[in-house]
Amino acid sequence: MNEKLIFIILNFVIIIGIIGKVYIIYRLIISYSSGVESLIRALAVTGACFIYLIFKTFGFSVTDILISALTTGNLMKFSVFGFVVPLILGILLTEYIILTIKTSESKAMRILILVATLSIFQYVDLYLTAYGVSSELSYVSSTKVLITNIMFTISTIITVIFRYDPKHIN
Question: Which key words are in the record (predicted)?
Answer without folding.
Answer: Membrane, Transmembrane, Transmembrane helix
